[in-house]
Each structure stands twice: as structure tokens, then as C-alpha cells.
Design a protein that fits this description.
Layout: H1 2-34, H2 38-44, H3 53-60, H4 70-83, H5 92-110
């Protein structure tokens, strides 16, 4: 009876270890191939679910802006990243949301999908 429990315990532990090593290996490959460029940062920022430009504007505080430029996006991004620095008690989660918002708005701006019709005013 004790041998059976021990075998189950070892089998379960071994399969969990194998899955963990496999996931760590996949992440290491992604990091090595991407080299922390904007594309890989988007993956690590949790941008697997698409962020809408409207949500991105709200995160960066640009939801009431008449016209958004790349300079506005970069300034807000830099300010919020500095404000939420984990070394100063900030949050990595919030930094990832700010990074995702920056990438979303930059992409929308380059593709011409960011215009005054998407801007909501209250």
C-alpha cells in the first residue's frame, strides 16, 4: 500500500517537473529569438488578448485628447513607466499594461486606424 502511494507521488511529481521544464524551455526560446524587441515585449506584456485603441487611450490618459501624436504616446508612456517603477514601490503589472497600450496606439497610428472618430469625449 505504501509503495503504491509512493509510486503515485513520484509519478505526479515527475510529470509536474517535466511540464515546468518544458514551459521554461519555451519561454527561454521565445526570449532568445525575440531579444526583447517590441514584438517580444508585446508577448511578455500579456498582449495575447487584443487591446482596443480606446482602452489604450484610457490607460495612457489620452482619451480626451483631440489629436494624438507619437510624441504624446511616448511622453505618457515614459511618465507612467517611471511612476510605476517596481524599485520605487510600483507595479510590474501596471507597467505591462502601459507597455501594451503604447504598442497598441503606435500600431493603430501607423496603420491609420487612430483618428478623431475613435476618440470619445465625456
Amino acid at each position: 500500500m505504501a509503495a503504491k502511494i509512493l509510486v503515485k507521488l513520484l509519478f505526479t511529481s515527475g510529470s509536474m517537473l517535466a511540464r515546468s521544464v518544458s514551459m521554461a524551455y519555451r519561454q527561454a526560446i521565445l526570449r532568445a529569438e525575440g531579444g526583447f524587441t517590441a514584438g517580444s515585449a508585446e508577448v511578455f506584456a500579456g498582449a495575447t488578448s487584443k487591446m482596443s485603441p480606446m482602452e489604450a487611450k484610457k490607460i495612457l490618459g489620452l482619451d480626451n485628447a483631440d489629436k494624438i501624436t507619437i510624441e504624446d504616446i511616448l511622453k505618457k508612456h515614459d511618465d507612467l513607466i517611471t511612476l510605476n517603477d517596481p524599485k520605487d514601490g510600483g507595479s510590474e503589472y501596471l507597467q505591462s499594461k502601459v507597455l501594451g497600450a503604447k504598442i497598441c496606439l503606435e500600431t493603430a497610428l501607423k496603420e491609420g486606424k487612430l483618428d478623431d472618430t475613435n476618440t470619445t469625449k465625456s
